[in-house]
Structures are given as structure tokens and as C-alpha cells.
Amino acid sequence: ATDWLEETASFFEQDSRPIMLFDGVCNLCNGGVKFVRDNDRKRNIRFEALQSEAGRKLLQRSGRAPDDISSVVLVEKDRSYIKSEAVLKIMEYIDLPFPQLALFLQFVPLFVRDFMYDRIADNRYNFFGHAESCEI
Q: What is the 3-state secondary structure (H, E, C) of 80-134?
């Protein structure tokens, strides 16, 4: 069995910033990446498409199937976050007022946040469309 933590350790050797994994062909996800970039003046977060080779390895490091593009994932050196937890953690890294909003939203129970997240994620292509290839 592959040790995915060891296999992906090199992603954090030169650059310890967390990596946001996103569906590279999803218009909503690409918009989310652009939003984070626009609100991350300190460039705290790196980006990688879930469909890329690195994305697939980082998914496995996070305990997900390598072809699971159902959720945004935030991968830190020592931990990964999925679904609404990933969104809240990303909000903590970007500019004001998003860290404060994340603090408030953490009081919404996880099952409620993830239920809402899943409804949007399951319908993202229907609502927002998708591209032929990753534009980021």
C-alpha cells in the first residue's frame, strides 16, 4: 500500500501553504478559486485541480478516492478538510471579513452545513455549467 502522506510530502517541503483542490471543469468551482484569489492578498493559499496528477495524489492523502471530484478539499501539511469544513478553513486564510464570518458559521452544526454543501455540489453543473477543460 502506498503511504500517501510520504508520497505527497514534497508538496510541502519548499512551500508550506495549504492547497485548495477544486473541480477544474466546474464553473462554480472556478469562480470560487477566482474569489479566493481576489480576497487572498497575502497569497496564503495555493490551488490545484482535483483532476490533475497532484490533485489525485492529494485526494488520496486526504482519504478520498483519486477520482472523487465531489468536494472542494483544503490540504494542509498535517491535515485535510472537506466539504463545508474546507470552505470555512479557506475563509480563515483570506482577507477580512471572511475569517470572522467563518467563526460565526462554525456554530452551525456540521451536518447542517454539509447538507447544504451537498445540495449545491450535487447540482453545480446544472446551476452553473461546466467547461471542457480547467481554465485556471
A: EEEHHHHHHHHHHHCCCCHHHHHHHHCCCCHHHHHHHHHHHHHCHHHHHCECCCC
